[in-house]
Structure formats: C-alpha cells, structure tokens
Queue: 3 jobs
Job 1
Amino acid sequence: MKKYDFLVIGGGAAGFFAAINCAEHRPGLSVGIFEATPRVLSKVKISGGGRCNVTHNCFDPRALVRHYPRGGKELLGPFHKFGPEQTIAWFAARGVALKVEADNRMFPTTDSSQTIIDCLQGAVQKNGIELRLKALVETVEKIGDIFQVTLKGGEVIEAKTLMLATGSATFGWSVVRKLGHKLIEPNPSLFTFEIDHPLLKGLPGVSFPSVTAELQSTDGNFVQEGPLLITHWGLSGPAVLRLSAFGARVLAATDYKADLYVNFEGRIKGDEVFAVLMNNKNQEAKKKISTVNPLQGPRRFWEALLEFSGFAPDKLWADANKKELFKLSELITHFPFRIQGKGAFKEEFVTAGGVARSEIDFRSFQSKLIPGLFMAGEVIDVDGITGGFNFQNAWTGGFLAGTAAAEMVSGARAEPST
Ligand SMILES: Cc1cc2nc3c(=O)[nH]c(=O)nc-3n(C[C@H](O)[C@H](O)[C@H](O)COP(=O)(O)OP(=O)(O)OC[C@H]3O[C@@H](n4cnc5c(N)ncnc54)[C@H](O)[C@@H]3O)c2cc1C
C-alpha cells in the first residue's frame, strides 16, 4: 500500500503551496497531491479575469486583516510569518515578478495566470511531488497515527500527515464533520445586488468614484465606501462587493432581501449638499437645473435623478423651492433601494463558512482535534474581500501547514496545541 509522509487532497492554490513548501522544507519526504478533476489550479487559471490577482500590496498585517470579513483576527499571527511580502519574495525567487496596480492589487508582470500555474507546477516537478489527477478521494479515516484515504474505485492510500485543501467542495466539509469538526454553514460571498428601481433604468455603465453604501437589516447594519457601478440588474462595484462580503451571512439569512441606502456623494452630508443646491439657486438662477450638475456622478445620472424627483426638464434654478431642494439633497445622500436578490460577479467569488476557526491552530493550520490533519484555503471559515486577499489566505495557510507537516513527520515538532 502506498504511504505518504504528507498527502494533500485538492490541487488548488492552498494544496499546491502546502505540498511544495513541505517538500522544500524537508527534502526527501514523500509528498503527494490528489486532485479529483483532470485539471489542477483551475481557479487560479480563471482568477482575476485570467490575470490572477495573486496578493495585495499591503505589508502591515494589522491593516491586511481588516479585509477579511471572517478570519481576520486569526490571520494576524500567520500574516506576521508569511504575508504578502513573503509571497512576493517566494514567487520572485522562482522567477515570477509581480506588479502593483493603482488599487494595490498585485498581478504577475505577464498579466497571465498561466505564469503562476507554470511556476507552481514547475516547483511540484522539481521537488518530486507525486501529482495524481482524476483521483477523487471518497473517504478519510484516522486509524491510530495513520490516515487512510480511499479513492473512488476502492484504492486505499496511507499518510502520516494529511492536508484538506478541497476549497468549497462539499466533500472536505463532510470529511471534517465525520472526523468530529464543527462546520459553519457555507454561504456565497462577493456578489452584486439585484435591484429593480426606476432611477437605475437607462443608466447601466454609469459609475461613481466613491459612494457610501449602508446595508440595513434586522440582524445588523454594514457600511462601506468605494466606487459604485450601475448595471443592467442593479448595483455593483467595490462598495457593493465589500458590503456583500461583510453582510454575507445576514443577506443569506434574509434570502438576499434587504434595505440599502446610498450616499452618491460619499461622505458629504445632506446639509452640505443642500447648501450647494441653495447656492446654485442663487448663483445660477437663470440656468436650467439639469445643465448645472453639482454631483461627482455624470450628467446622465443628475438628469435621471431630477426626473425621478419630479423636476421638469427645463425648470430653472430660480424656480426650485427650498423644500424641493431639501428633498433632493436627502435623495442624493440617503437614496433608498431595496435589494431583491443576489447577482453574479464574474471576476471573483468565494464561500463564507467552512470548518470552524475555533477548532484550528492557526500557527500551523492544524486541527486542534485531530493531530496531523492540516487545512487551509477556502475549506476553513475564512474569506476575504476582492483584491487578492483570498489567494493570500491560501498561500499563508498552505505555507504554514506544509512547513509544520514537514517538521512533524521529521520529528522536530510533535503535537498541536489545544
Ligand atoms: C472566478 C474566480 C476568480 C477568482 N479570482 C481571484 C483573484 O483574482 N484573487 C484572489 O485572491 N482570489 C480569487 N478567487 C478566489 C480564489 O480562487 C479562492 O479563494 C482560492 O482558489 C481557494 O483555493 P483553495 O486551494 O482553498 O481551493 P480551490 O482552488 O477550490 O481548490 C480545491 C481543489 O480541491 C479539489 N477537490 C475537491 N474535492 C476533492 C476530492 N474529494 N478529492 C480530490 N480533490 C478534490 C477541487 O477539484 C479543487 O481543484 C477567485 C475565485 C473565482 C471563482
């Protein structure tokens, strides 16, 4: 029967990183990766629109953890050991240079996710790691000190240490549950908001550099700032994606129905906008309201807002009364929408939920319940917002798990802490 020192289930970012770092940390160990499908690293391939947003240009762990709606606290220690700085150096040492974009997302300079795949696959080969494709693991048991893994077809393999890097596949969660771990209900994160509202009709493609958006629900309120985009189905853009991540659980609980308030002028308050409108009434009295756009958004949006608010297209500033302008300033800074559903964000999505964080020792990403069982990536109840944070979680967990497993099997360190 084949027996590995370290066997990784799942050929994604976390699994590859764990296997490579285990093999590099203690050369000579027998390390394997079993992947259910005919292809590895398929999410890396499609990530970041085919460019792979590898990490984020943020070297302060305390700032970095704020981008994780779930797991930020637990990732603080791990990021001190292996964060974006170490990720950049790791890839650079293997010939892959990363570049920073204006919004601090980091991509390979080639702008191709294949560069990352080639790098990881090259490291697997170089380190003699056995990669098996179409190897669907069906059951995992721990008998004494040894893990027994059964593949579809009945083949049984043994491993001294085991890594579950099965991402958001239900398999990994059912395995850990059977092994006694608690599972936090999985829900999608990083999605757009479906909103059917007359104001948005005819405005798809219109964007705002910085709005404030507040999600209100009976289970809690969430506020995020950032760019906003009007789509054919509702609202998208960084402010909405961040809200969808921080509010993922609350939104799932309400079946994606909630109230959303948008301040189209960002942090500028209603009374300040009202003052600007009153000033226009005095200074621009003879001009049409529609031709003097006081907002950061485009004129198309201003005109649509005026129409929605009942202003005639050729009404002059002089003819607008104080009450109307006050109502308009309220709408600009506190526009009420009703979220009716969850839309797709094709560039990136992730699952909130997974193996309970309280049962994982984040120094090594080892189970507190089952010594020798490691987990990293999306299988754990950790997720980040869009911007390279989800891969960083996979690299960090993969690195710490792989090196800890290497030490464990070579006898340098023994048990996980509880
Ligand atoms: C479209 C898209 C774009 C994205 N873009 C980005 C981005 O640019 N930046 C970023 O940071 N994040 C991005 N993400 C998120 C990121 O891809 C994930 O967080 C990350 O891939 C998780 O890695 P993982 O190794 O935990 O899981 P996965 O990459 O999902 O890998 C899990 C692997 O396990 C295998 N597996 C499952 N069950 C079994 C089994 N029983 N036996 C054997 N193998 C099994 C699966 O087939 C899979 O290959 C994106 C996600 C999507 C969907």
Job 2
Amino acid sequence: MKIILVGYGKMGRLIEKRAVEKGHEIAAVIDPGVENKLSGQGARVFKSVDAFEKEEKERGTPAECIAIDFSHPASVERNIRDFAERRIPLVVGTTGWYDKLEELSGLVKSKHSSLLWASNFSLGVNIFYKIASYCAAIFDNYGEYDVAGYEIHHKQKADSPSGTAKTIGGIMLKNMKRKNKLVWDKLDRPPEADEIHFASLRSGAEPGVHGLIFDSAVDSIEIKHTARNREGLVYGAILAAEWLEKTTRSGKYGVFTMEDVLG
Ligand SMILES: NC(=O)c1ccc[n+]([C@@H]2O[C@H](COP(=O)([O-])OP(=O)(O)OC[C@H]3O[C@@H](n4cnc5c(N)ncnc54)[C@H](O)[C@@H]3O)[C@@H](O)[C@H]2O)c1
C-alpha cells in the first residue's frame, strides 16, 4: 500500500515508522509545518496536496495512494475536499470537525470517493464503546444511579472535549432513555435529571483516559480506558487504511467508520 501522510506530528511520525515496518510505502508527507525535504523514512515532504500533485504529474507517475490525516481540526475540511476531488481514499484521525461530518460525507459520496473516520482508532476504545453501551442500557433501569463522564489528555491537544468523549456521550444518550442532554462546560448549578455531565482535563503528556462513573448513594461503579501510549491508535489507523484500500479496490466507495473495519 502507498500512503500519503497528511500531518507529520506525533501520530504521523509513528504511523510512518510502523507502516514501513509492515512493508508499506510512504509516497509522500504533507505538512506545511515541516521544513525538511525528506521525512524520517526518506519520503518526500510537501507543504500542500497541490504541491504533491504537481510534482507527481511532472514525474509522470499516477498516484494510486491512500491518504491518512492526523493534522489539525482547522485543516480537515480542506483536506477532505482536496482528496475527495482527486478520488484518493482518505482515513481521518484528526478530531474536532464533526459538526461538518454530514456535509462532508455528502461531498465525498457525490464525488464517488471514500472516507473512513474514527474519533479513536484503538481496538481497546472500540471495545470500551461496546461495554459502555451495555452499562448504559443496564443502568437506565436503575434510577438511583446517576452517570457522569470524564476524559484526560496531554496539554498540547487542540480540541476539547475529545472526539472519543463525544462518541461515548452519544452512546450514553442512545442507550439511556432517562438522559437527553450532554453538558461539557463547567456546571455552576446542580445538573438536571436528564443531563449527563462530562468533564475534560488537560495536563502533561497523558495519551488519553476516558471514564464513566455510575454513582448511587450506597456505591459507585466506574469503567475506564487508559491508553498507555499511541501504539494502539497507530495500529488501528494502519489497519483502517489497509481495510479502506482493499474495500476501494473491490469497487466499494462511501463513508466508513471503525465499526466497519472491526465488523
Ligand atoms: N482518531 C484517533 O484515534 C486519534 C489519535 C490521536 C490523535 N488524534 C487527533 O489527531 C490530530 C493530530 O494529533 P497529533 O498528536 O499527531 O498532533 P500534533 O500536533 O503532534 O501534529 C499535528 C501536525 O499536523 C500538522 N498540520 C497542521 N496543519 C496542517 C495541514 N493543513 N496539512 C497537513 N498537516 C498539517 C502540524 O504542522 C503538525 O505537524 C489531533 O486532532 C488529535 O486529536 C486522533
């Protein structure tokens, strides 16, 4: 598989390393913030998709690639449009753009291109989603238990709450009839009975903690996922790219998530 890496920060660099170890080729790196002409594994570095495309045309090599985007929330919309226009399948790990998901999904489909997005590519978190929906359905029957959520991430993280927290919040609302609203901001009042309070904490180098607390007057049950490092995310992102490449090659296009990858 030939990969275009969009965003060459913490995730991009690790994906490059692991993808090359798995025998994939890095066709190019696109990151306006990188000054080097070559990446750590010797791939060409470009400031934009246009610059990459121009050089590809001059070299006369058609770009049969798959792109993986771990960049910045502010650049995702442009990146999705750019790759959909060129019908290059795109895996998006960048979070903080989901208010545009519907519109951009429509665009990708109208161009007969492919997009696979996930707020979290780790297998453990995707298992956590299933456990969370199971717990929500059980606790929905026991009104004496309230539910709250929290997430903790490193202090460089650009968006808040995390995309994973939003997904978990959505799972709670879907599975708890007595809860109708997520509150992400600080509360200067007691929560309403139908609200779920979800808190975000930013500190140090934490790669990611997500938890849910089911709390009653007599006891408390907590479920929590702690990422030890970024390896699980990187593994999942490469797995998603491999799946999307195979799916696209079989003639299937559209918008997919990690649920499709994990069956
Ligand atoms: N879905 C997941 O599983 C998952 C996992 C980890 C991180 N993330 C998300 O991925 C994103 C990146 O994370 P990170 O830890 O690698 O961040 P990072 O800050 O280390 O790296 C981001 C890189 O993107 C580059 N960039 C900025 N604008 C760009 C553009 N227009 N085109 C290409 N590159 C551009 C920056 O120069 C930087 O090198 C964040 O949104 C983060 O929340 C998602």
Job 3
Amino acid sequence: MGISHQIIHVDMDAFFASVEQLDNPELKDRPVIVGGSVEQRGVVAAASYAARKFGIHSAMPMSQALKVCPNAIVMPVRMKRYVEISNRIHEIFSRYTSQIEPISLDEAFLDVTGSIQLFGSAEKIGRRIKDEIKAELGLVASVGIASNKFLAKLASDLEKPDGFVIIKEQNKQKILDPLPISKIWGVGKVTEKALKTAGINTIKQLRQTQPEYLKTILGNQATDILSLAQGIDNREVESVHITKSISSEHTFAVDIDDKGILLSVLLGQVEEVAYRLRKSGFEAKTITLKLRYGNFETITRSSTLDKATNVTETLWQEAKAVFLKWHKKSAGSLRLLGFGTSGLVTEGTGQKELFINHEEEKQKRIDKAFDKIKDRYGDDAVRRGK
Ligand SMILES: [Mg+2]
C-alpha cells in the first residue's frame, strides 16, 4: 500500500464580498454584491451570504441582481486588495507546508503529509490555518480534509460557510453515495444530462453501473469518473513554489577587493537570508554566491549541503568555504556580491537523523535568540562575529 496522503482544501467564504465587509464594517451582515455597475452592464463577481439568500450568484447580470434585491449594496471590484489578502492567506499556509497549489485567489490545496510529524495531524493543521486566518485577517475559511484532492474539495464545500469537514476512508463512500453526480469533477452539464437520461442521478447509482455500459455514455472519461465516484483520485497537489529561492545581494559604490570587507558583507547577507528562511518556515539545500567583477563579468559558485538547513552558522560555514575557494583561484575587485539559497523545503520535512545533533541544537537556540532581538529592535541590532 502506498503512503496515504493528507490533503487540505481551503476555500474562503464569499471572499471578495467578505473583504469589502471587513474594510467597511457597516456592511457586515448586509447584502453586499461585488461587481460592475448596472450602467456598465456589469455582472456579479461575488455576493455576501445575505445577498445569496435572494438567489444572487456570480456571473449574474447586476441589473437582474438588483431587481431581486433592491437593497443590495454594490461595491466595485478591488482586485489589488484581494490579491494582497490572498498573499497573506498564502503566507499562513506556508507556515505548515510548501506543498501549496493555489486554485484561485481564495482557494488552495495543501499537501500536509510531510508536516504531520511536526504539527500533529492534518486536523490540527487545518484548525490552526482556519483559526489563524480568522484571528489575523478577520476572514472565514471553509476547510476540507481528506486523502485526496477530490474528497478534500468536496469536504470543504459540505458545510459551507464556516465549514470544517474531514472525510475519512471509512466514511467516504457513505458521504459520496447520496450526492448528485454533478459533484464529480469532469461531470459538466452535457455529461450530467447524458447520465440522467440513462437514469443515473446519484454517485451511488453511478458507481453501481457496469463500466462497459458507462463507457458507452462517457467514452474514455468513464474510468476516471468511476474512480472519483469511489473516492479515488491520484492527482497530486502541484505546488507552485512562489518562494523558489531566498537571496540577498549588494552592489558596491566602488569596486571592492578587500577579502575582509567582502567576507563581512557576505556574513551580513547570510544572516539576513537565514533569518528570512526561518521566518517563512523554509530550509535550503543549496547555497549560491553571485560575484560580479568590475568589468561586469558575473559568475556564480554553488554548493549543495548534505541536508537542508536554515541554521545561520551552517549556511555561513558553507558560504565562507565557497567564497575562500573562489578567492584563492579567481579573486578580483567586485562591484556586486550576492548570497542566495535554493532547493527550499518546508522546515522539518527533510530527512530525519537518527541521533540528536547537539551542535545543531545549540546553533538553533542561538538563532532563536538572535531572531527575537532582530524582531524587536530591527536589522542592525545584532551582528555576529566572523
Ligand atoms: Mg471561495
């Protein structure tokens, strides 16, 4: 048996409308519609739950929406603001995993299989994400948890708004069976009609249909749809690594060839990058030095670590070794020096060691202490010695 995945689907409730209510508290609980104005022949982009009660839904012409709910408050679409909030939601996700597949501004899949050892369970992670979105952003998310994407998305929708549903292997068929076939991915209007004509209305009826017969209706889609009806979905979370690398670089006012000064600049960069790695919950496997000579020739020198880390001292020792090797061979005046990390993984998800590494634990404590001071007093409050 393969490893069972733990997938979380997070879907914000009435996202655009909720952001408008957040920024305009007097709109709370009112029927709010976000979209283009009637004069512009606009359509509904989003509607608050109070507005949805009137049957208002997205893509509906605004003129029609206002006919069924004349008291609705129409707000223009402020995409920039929604993107800003979306990024902050994404930042909350990234505390728990780097395996994030955004579907839209307000919806994403998270594969937290590798995060459970660190955070407890998918349920705990899902709760924390939901709570942190509420506490930090004042917005409500619905959360679904299951062993695959199809079920996780289904789960987040089951008790929307403010939903939190876990579908387990034991109860998945019970939940799926009574649902209409339209709940299955890939069953669009045309397919739905064809199935209904054949007397297949529910997922239970679908999965009890002979595969050969289904093929005559669905063609080569039949196998996939039948799998989904049984709660089987092997599609992986395709994470878009928004953070592919974290780096810092510095262009000098005059070209610098002093080894001591360059090393000191490099140390500052390593400290900054390591701090940012820790803050975003990443560890890096590869470090890269970027060196630009006075004549603009630019070279990079990389090194891959035995295991991913965000410990300043470890990154610094590696960076220093790479720098000294470069310096010995091809030293020159630099107009730019940069330090970058890539091959990022979520903190704590790399390979586990059999023994406690006491030196590493000590360094982690030092980093923690430095980070605290830095958080409080700013960038230049602490520097360590070379
Ligand atoms: Mg949504």
